[in-house]
Specification:
Rossmann fold, alpha/beta, seven-stranded mixed sheet, 184 residues, 5 helices
Length: 184
């Protein structure tokens, strides 16, 4: 998954919001020449406390807030870029979260994403659907079968670019979507 993160995170620029920073896996991939300020939100302090990067040494301003994507603690039109990497799968209210992203994103801003989700192959999708209830319980709320393009487009965004493929790994969890979208 780090290869997927490397594909998208360097495109962040300006005032950036990362939703679901987790333990900070994306921090090494931000461009010091493009990012001015990074605000990161994460609902789990336990997860964030596993971070091994000293955020005081980052080449840009950094701010962390314990928060959920459904209620982003900032003013409207605050960010040039919003980053989502392997986050939509665990967000319970994706409609509310994407509404909040639209609220805090500047009109000219971009949503950059990399997510796993609904596989295009019927056989794999059947497994995703069968396994998902159990997987969700043991995987911290992670859903294997969310339709990422439909969620993003259906919630007020249009794609500037979207790619998809199976990455190496267990097929029910390895179909990835990545790209950029803007407010419609």
């Amino acid at each position: 998954m780090s290869i997927q993160r490397q594909k998208v995170v360097p495109f962040a620029e300006g005032n950036v919001l990362e939703i679901g920073i987790g333990s900070g896996l994306n921090l090494p991939y931000y461009s010091k020449d493009k990012v001015k300020h990074l605000t990161a939100i994460e609902p789990s302090l336990e997860t964030w406390n596993r971070n091994i990067i000293n955020t005081n040494d980052l080449p840009f301003d950094f701010e962390f807030a314990q928060a959920f994507a459904e209620n982003i603690p900032t003013e409207p039109n605050s960010f040039d870029t919003v980053i989502l990497t392997y986050t939509l799968c665990t967000i319970q209210d994706t409609f509310k979260s994407l509404e909040e992203i639209r609220r805090v994103l500047k009109p000219t801003g971009k949503l950059i994403f990399c997510e796993h989700g609904k596989a295009p192959d019927e056989a794999i999708l059947k497994w995703q659907n069968r396994i998902n209830p159990f997987w969700k319980m043991v995987g911290g709320g992670c859903n294997l079968n969310k339709d990422i393009p439909k969620l993003i487009e259906g919630n007020g965004f249009q794609f500037k670019k979207i790619d998809s493929m199976y990455i190496p790994g267990w097929k029910p969890a390895s179909f990835n979507y990545w790209g950029a979208a803007e407010i419609r």
